[in-house]
Design brief:
Layout lengths: L2 E7 L5 H15 L6 E7 L11 H8 L15 H5 L2 E4 L2 H8 L11 E3 L20 H22 L2
Parallel strand pairs: 1-2, 1-3, 3-4
Helix pairs in contact: 1-5, 2-5
This protein binds 4-nitrophenyl phosphate (4NP).
4-nitrophenyl phosphate binds next to loops.
């Protein structure tokens, strides 16, 4: 059975779709496509159905990457259905666990930056109201964290 990974941020249009796309890329590069299934979601529902944010897609395009996806809202059944849930920041972490019984799913919800190998950031910063360089930083950070995550999960 493939391991099911869910990346979660606030809007599911900037950070978590970037994480999902980057993780899928690293999984493909290592020919591990039959071992993992990736998805992403937002704790908020404002952007449901929307593709990744244009600024995020532009930053990706500059690196030759094509970020795809359609936003959806995180729901309590995701806590049961996924094996590992990666929160981009502490608010996301708290909001994810608040949808389940206290303590029950604490083991499968992790902070994305716990898997960083080079960066010292503790959270993936929300780039939505910031400048273009924020989107580049998110991509750098996520390549680092996704690499560490894949390393930790590899058979
Ligand atoms: P994300 O960024 O959580 O990385 O997708 C945001 C997207 C939208 C909003 C905030 C953050 N918003 O307030 O609409």
């Amino acid at each position: 059975m493939p391991k099911k990974l869910l990346f979660v941020c606030l809007g599911n249009i900037c950070r978590s779709p970037a994480a999902e796309n980057i993780m899928n890329l690293l999984i493909e590069q290592e020919n591990l496509g039959d071992r993992f299934v990736c998805d992403s979601a937002g704790t908020g529902g404002w952007h449901v159905g929307a593709p990744p944010d244009k600024r995020m897609r532009m930053a990706a395009k500059e690196r030759g990457l094509n970020f795809v996806g359609s936003a959806r809202q995180f729901e309590s059944k995701d806590l049961q259905e996924f094996d590992l849930i990666l929160a981009m920041d502490r608010d996301n972490y708290r909001n994810i666990l608040s949808l389940g019984p206290q303590g029950k799913y604490a083991d499968k919800v992790k902070m994305m930056c716990d898997y960083c190998q080079n960066h010292t950031d503790k959270e993936v910063p929300d780039p939505y109201y910031g400048h273009a360089d924020g989107f580049n930083h998110v991509i750098d950070l996520l390549f680092d964290a996704c690499g560490g995550l894949l390393k930790s999960l590899k058979p």
